Amino acid sequence: MTDTASTALSDEAALAEQKRKEAYFTAGQLQLIWARFKRNRSAMVGGVVLLTLIGMGIFAPFLSPYDPTIAGRDKTYQNGAPQIPYFWDQNGFSLRPFVYSYTRERSAATNFRWVSKVDEDKRRYLELFVPGWEYHLMDLHLDLPGEAFDINIQVLKSNTHLFGVDQGQIHIFGTDGPGKDIFSRTLHAIYTSLAVGTIGVFIAFVLSLVIGGVSGYYGGWIDSVLQMITDSVRTVPAIPLFMALAAFVPDEWSAELRFLFISIILGLIGWPTLARRVRTHLLTERSQDYVLAAQLCGASPGHVIRKHLLPSFTSYIIVDLVISFPYMVLSETALSFIGLGLKDPVNSLGVMLQNVTKTDVLLNYHWYFIPVIFFMALVMAFVFVGDGLRDAADPYGERN
Amino acid sequence: MSSSLIKVENLTLQFKTDEGLITAVDNVSFEVAPGEIMGLVGESGSGKSVTAKSLMQLNPGNAVYSPESRITLTTDGEDFDVLSLKTDRDLKVVRGGAVSMIFQEPMASFAPAITIGDQMVEQLLLHSDMNKKQARDHSIEMLERVGISDAPTRFGQYAFEFSGGMRQRAMIAMALSTKPKLLIADEPTTALDVTIQAQVIDLMKDLVAEFGMGILFITHDLGVIAQTADNVSVMYLGKLIETGSVRQVIRDPAHPYTQGLLHAIPKLEQLDVPLTPVPGDIPSPLDRPPGCVFHTRCSQMIEGRCDADIPTPTTLSEGHVASCFVAQYGPGGVAEASA
Amino acid sequence: MNEETPLISAKGLSVHFGLGRKLFGEQKVVRAVENISLDIPKGSFFGLVGESGSGKTTFGRAILQAAPITNGSIAYNDGEVDYNIASLDKSDLKDYRKRAQLIFQDPYAALSPRMTVRDIIAEPLEVMGLTASRKETDKRVREMAAKCRLNLEHLRRFPHAFSGGQRQRISIARALVCQPKFLVADESVAALDVSIQADILNLLKSLTEEMGITFLFISHDLSVVAHICDHVAVMYLGRLVETAPTRELFAAPRHPYTKALLSAIPSLDPDYRGQAQKLEGEIPSPTNPPPGCKFQTRCPHAIDICRSEEPMLSQLGFEHDVACHRWEELFEDQAPAIVSAQVPEARPVPEPVPVPKPEPEPAAEEEPMAPKVLANELARLRRKTRIAITVSIIALLALPFACAL
Fold first, then answer.
1. Cis peptide, bond prior to residue A345, ω within 30 of zero
2. CA torsion through residues B300, B302, B308, B311, sign
3. Do B62 and A399 touch (CB under 8 A)?
4. Is the pTM of this model over 0.90?
């Protein structure tokens, strides 16, 4: 009565089903979270955006056609508008995208301001993998006090860039006052902010794990004392602190050193929030039955922490880390914007926005704001990914 | 207009989850008359809580009702089709108005930061046209009625200041203050001590007699049902497998699952009889067995019949209905199968 | 006539917890366990019964040294060693841990959610260093799992794949893998459905008989205790009110509380209604216990002496002790308190089917709980908030451009 073919098919289907179920049963916590995360559309989109932006930041020197510092500025195109590559205009179609050349002139008629005039007949063609300024993929020079601590790391020297033009320069996002390419600056700014965020989050993470961990596990008076310390650190007001630090930092310090310093300080004031979360979580988990079961076997506190408590909040820690990131980025931006953080020539969004407050810029040079869109995307991507992770890690999360 | 208070017909409910479409309730039909206590018995995974929540449309958003499902609520001479009510305003008639529900864990049912009195008054203001003072007086009266001493003081206290039994009584008071026609009690005594349980059960029976309402009493404890309910329906894996009066089902269980349940219960009168569990484990709802849902664990299963066809409800005697081939045809009987 | 030394012998055991910390003035004290003396004979299945607040869980934990002992002593003597649990030094404590284990009530909280079943069962062996190699550990884990009807596939899975009954079996395997002599089961079947409960109880009984373990079974469910325990002790508000062999306790309870407990159990006979003696009121607060006998606030037979003097345990029969001033006069001629109900006409009991070989069973899907409805609402609100913030940021930024135009 039964068709052998259909039984074979249903056997296969049953086997596949069994395999899928077995995968679900043997899935560790992280695998389960990943499976749930994948189903969250906004989180996946956020993840893709985030990875793209991080990629752009890491490969910033490769992707940017010109040196973002003063050395790579284009004197002929200062405060220039963004140049969009065309494929086709009244002079004909071109397979290769091109931009127009321009000439600059100033006269009494223009109030002695440099005005660029576009010359539609002279085209500059876009080229890929163009040789340009030299760069290292990772370039770290740290001149720390004391000869022994100087750090000099250089990785992967190259001078190829993704695109460029055959003559002159191309500025996709326009240029700023001195003529620096905003596109290049944006990419490097992403990198800087991510780096500051990483260092800050890492320091905050280590500190909060240790302090929150000890506090939560032991409880009692240790907990009370550590919580008092945590609260007092949290009440330190950020702006006056940075003002004081800005005054304290000697001018001889290089941009990199300053950058490292800002990151460390951000980490040092960012740990109380995380520490409190770690402590709360540990306090809850500590009284769980399975912890008592382990203790009744005679397990040492180290064993209990390592095998039971730490794995139980790995997911929460990951979520907390991802969510703290944008706060670090935004803090650094805000501080640099008001001049208490990084300064020129280091590229960061805050530094780029320092010139934005002039009316001239606000009225005429609107392309200065393009990096803001990138940063919004970066922060929102972090937020969406963090939210997605939190939903995925939460056993009561909604299901579709 | 029907004589029953609430009539459930062909209720089929599925949940859309990551693992697929899970059938939680499969073609369940029963009715509760005014003044009747109907017990709904089943173990975890049987779908009894989900069925109860359907009566007030309290199931989460991923619940899918089949088109044949009908829940008819008869109140004040009118029939309401509960499943067709969509907006919250329409559902207000049902939720807290004509139908009230009390839950297993009273601590979770009271908002911890609002006094008990405020919550009771809020309920009354929503469902009746009393003013605040009338609501307050009525609530205090209800608290006294459920046996909470010093009600005016208790009215202003918070949930954590009450003990477990008192919280449950307060919840009953709150549920009954709107004078509902039907009270759904979802495992109300499971979390209580046995002496407090006896008190709460007595209270519920008195209130039924006084208010003339119907109770749908959901529990896994057949002993409580025997002492409280008039009729009982037994559910297994989303299907209603046996229903009848309490005497019929407990004294003369027709379905092998009911028989197994009764044998598994430790009885004080039979201390020498060893405990016999129902063999096997309840199947996952993703893996519903074909044919009769219970056949994988049934010792009296008829090969070829029980694993292939779904048994339909058969009336064994007046009011006693079971869905079982064995009950219908006797053990081993296949040949007498008609239609 | 049991001349053998009991395995556990508690004398005057008290466990008090301090509430809050006050610099000046009196600290409130919860007398969770007060002055309990009882003996648990070797090899017995000893039941400890009480409602919430009776202190039975605390007593069980105190025996395992998981609760601080304020007064009194507990002697542990299994023929090989002789310890006073109240004052154990570190190495003795380590040894004691191998001999005494605990099975928890909540099967969902008792297993570490990020460890595989194999690791959970192996943990006692690894922590206590009972095995020499990983191979040996695996072998013992597999043996224990097979005894508890868990197969090899189960060992690789995580706890989220299992139902309540299966998780409880994993807990039992973990407790038994180090081959203890004494096991405390703290409400271990309370969270399970009735047929699974029967299954677990049968498993416990067979395992303990096979491995020669003494059992302390803590429960609030008298019918369960009646079926599997050979000796029962009843606690109320931290005190022992009655203790007797099971049959005797259920046939002729002497303490009014025991009698009330028994009659409160809902009978399966629908016609036996309204004949039970109902107990009024609630258990008093353990921080503020009434003077004299703790039960006097609810006892229908309380007289003046009950309100002023606390009754001591007096022996009224062989191994039957009761703590009540009026036990002699109250129940001398009373009929047994057990419901002499009509035993339902015995239907032919179906042949107990041999348990089918457990296939790799997935966990029963939990019915969605009320928190999920709330979680849905929260998630919806979060999404709306996010969209609103995005739109307003864009609007704010577009404002200067709009003005410029």
1. yes
2. negative
3. yes
4. no
Out of B58, B164, B264, the one facing C198 most closely (by C-beta) is B264
Which string of b and e fits C226-261 if b means at least 16 CB within 10 Å? bbbbebbbbbbbbbbbbbbbbebbbebbbbbbbbbb
Q: How far is residue A233's CA from residue A340's CA, in Å, rounded to a whole number? A: 20
Distance to chain B for A316, nearest Cα, Å: 22
* pLDDT tens-digit series, residues C306-325: 888 888 888 776 788 888 88
- Cβ distance B190 to B220 under 8 Å? yes
pLDDT in tens, chain A (400 residues): 445 555 566 677 778 777 777 776 666 777 777 888 888 888 999 999 999 998 988 888 888 878 777 777 777 777 777 877 777 777 777 777 777 777 777 777 767 777 777 777 777 777 777 777 777 766 666 666 666 666 666 777 777 777 777 777 778 888 887 878 888 888 888 888 888 888 888 888 888 888 888 888 887 889 999 999 999 988 988 788 888 887 887 777 777 777 788 888 888 888 898 888 888 888 888 888 888 889 888 888 888 877 888 777 777 778 888 888 888 888 888 888 887 777 777 788 888 888 777 887 888 788 888 888 888 899 999 989 988 888 887 654 333 2
Report how many helices (DSSP H) and strands (DSSP E) chain B contains, helices first. 12, 13
Count the helix, strand and coil residues of chain A and give each as a percent rounded to the nearest 5. 60, 15, 25
Which residues make beta-bridge pairs with A116? A104
A24, A27, A290 ranked by CB distance to C109: nearest? A290
Structure token digits, residue A176: 């700023």
Residue in chain C lying closest to A290 (CA): C110
Q: Cα torsion for C125, C126, C128, C132, to the nearest 10°?
A: 80
Chains meeting B at 3+ CB pairs closer than 8 A? A, C
Interface check for B299 against chain A (CB to CB < 8 A): the answer is no
Place of tokens 């009316």: A359
- Does residue C227 contact residue C66 with C-beta atoms inside 8 Å? no
Considering only the beta carbons, identify the residue of A29, A314, A363 that sits closest to C404: A363
Encode pLDDT of A220-231 as tens digits. 889 999 999 999
What is the DSSP code (8-state) at residue A123? Answer: E
Cβ of B268 within 8 Å of Cβ of C250? The answer is yes
List, in sequence order, every residue forming a beta bridge with B72; answer none if it has no partner: B7, B81
DSSP A299-318: --HHHHIIIIIHHHTHHHHH
- Which DSSP state fits C160? G
Closest partner CB to A311 (pick from C114, C174, C360): C114
Compute the distance between CA of residue A183 and CA of residue C270 in angstroms, rounded to an integer: 84
Distance from CA of C174 to the nearest CA of B (A): 21
Q: Report how far residue C98's alpha carbon sits from residue C175's, in angstroms, rounded to the nearest whole number.
A: 10
Pairing of strands B320-322, B314-317: antiparallel
- Contacts of residue B140, Cβ cutoff 8 Å, sequence gap at least 6: B117, B151, B152, B155
Selection from C279, C277, C325, C273 nearest residue C298 by Cα: C279
Decide the pairing of beta strands A92-105 and A86-89.
antiparallel
Decide if A28 and C114 are in contact by the 8 Å CB cutoff: yes
List residues bridging with B321 in a β-sheet: B243, B315
Going A326 to A332 to A338 to A342, the CA torsion angle's sign is negative
What number of other Cβ atoms are within 10 A of residue B10's Cβ?
14
Q: A14 to chain B: which residues are within 8 Å by CB? A: none
Token readout for C374 is 């709330």
Helix residue ranges per DSSP H, B16-111:
48-54, 88-91, 106-109
> In 3D, which of A327, A192, A189, A203 has the Cα closest to residue A275?
A203
